[in-house]
Request: fold
Amino acid sequence: MLSTDERITPQLKGFLGLVVPKGILGGSFYLEVPNDFTRDMLEQRVRPSLLSALGTLDDALAVSNFSVVVNPDIDDYDRSTDSSAPVVAPAARDELTQPAVTSGYAESIPHAQETVGPARNNDTRLNPKYSFDNFVIGGSNRFAHAAAVAVAEAPAKAYNPLFIYGDSGLGKTHLLHAIGHYAISLYPGVRVRYVSSEEFTNDFINSIANNRGAAFHSRYRDIDLLLIDDIQFLQGKAETQEAFFHTFNTLHDHNKQVVITSDLPPKHLTGFEDRMRTRFEWGLITDVQTPDLETRIAILRKKAQSERLRVPDDILEFMASKVSSNVRELEGTLIRVTAFASLNRTPVDMQLVQTVLKDLITLDDDNVIAPVDIINHTAEYFKLSVDDLYGSSRSQAIATARQIAMYLCREMTSLSLPKIGQLFGGRDHTTVMYANNKIGKLMTEKRSIYNQVTEISNRIKHNQRYKSA
Ligand SMILES: Nc1ncnc2c1ncn2[C@@H]1O[C@H](COP(=O)(O)OP(=O)(O)OP(=O)(O)O)[C@@H](O)[C@H]1O
Reply:
């Protein structure tokens, strides 16, 4: 759709060839590119043409903005499967038709009424997978969910900051992204930025190293809604904390919303200055807890629906009763069960579920798996060196082994996506996200992958039991 634009040179066309359209959510057209350079080219040279081209799309799609996400792994992405026009996820349509709320917020941000405003949202770093639509509400998260919705509907008017804490895998990151999507759907010009604390730290360090402090400041201060994940990561990092302190103050003073997640409540966060912890307590503090059985069943049901998996209710109930600690683990179990059924071309029934779950060694909650064990076992299984997994080789065999190791780190540890990326030679969190999705999908399609993942994870758990015995 861009080829009619005279400014598009052959060189630029080359860059456009690297772009993979991913879909439309919350009024944003999501594109993936393999590196920062392509993203910059796109944003600097193509933005006006792309925005005007988006303006010619069917109104029903309600697209007014685009987001470019860097995913270095799309080099091995098969573009032929995705070359058709992107489709709007059904959930996104509902989100787009949400009635506007009357908080008066739109009037308070001048750019919210500008037609070109949405372009400001091209770097939100929001994950289209996490919306309020697919978040299941239960006793364990009802309050956090209500607070999150309130903040999205009236940024900086309801609670500022909103501080959400809780154990790993209980939906904090999901809520953060959902706030961002919902706020953008209500106020298309609102400038939103999601950042994990690891990325904030890296960004800060790079900005000092490259003398780009001004760009860093504007990235985090010229926004209306800052969503910062896993703040505990700033523990003991005095200079980054100082940078965050000033960012926070600037945003708060200018009536901009800050939402923070953490594994602990402010008063239990160690390695933070008091002035920082006090600020975390200015607004509303809420927690997410381990979901009860009904909520776990509902989460599995929703997940099965969204992945179009046919799983009878009694099976979902059985799975939910067996895996109780963490939603991420619960989702992992559902993937294993449905992958096994799909590979064997059998329906998901109780016998199959029992077989699969029997195969999955379960560990006590206090048995914590170290990522280094995952990497060692994966390397050993594939007869590769550990450095192969950490390194940058793109050979198919090494890349797949690396993606399996990333998948298992995601499934078996509480490490966040950026932390796993860092572990694997400083890769971007989107690379880990891609590996996780890819292996999850391949497990349903290729028996060899399913068997490899199951075997490696069992070896890791077996070894862990042996160590702690
Ligand atoms: N209530 C819920 N409804 C639907 N999905 C949920 C819910 N809670 C958690 N999940 C899903 O569980 C997975 C883990 O959630 P998430 O990443 O948000 O956890 P987290 O609390 O941020 O964990 P961490 O602290 O490790 O980053 C995600 O796929 C998320 O979509």
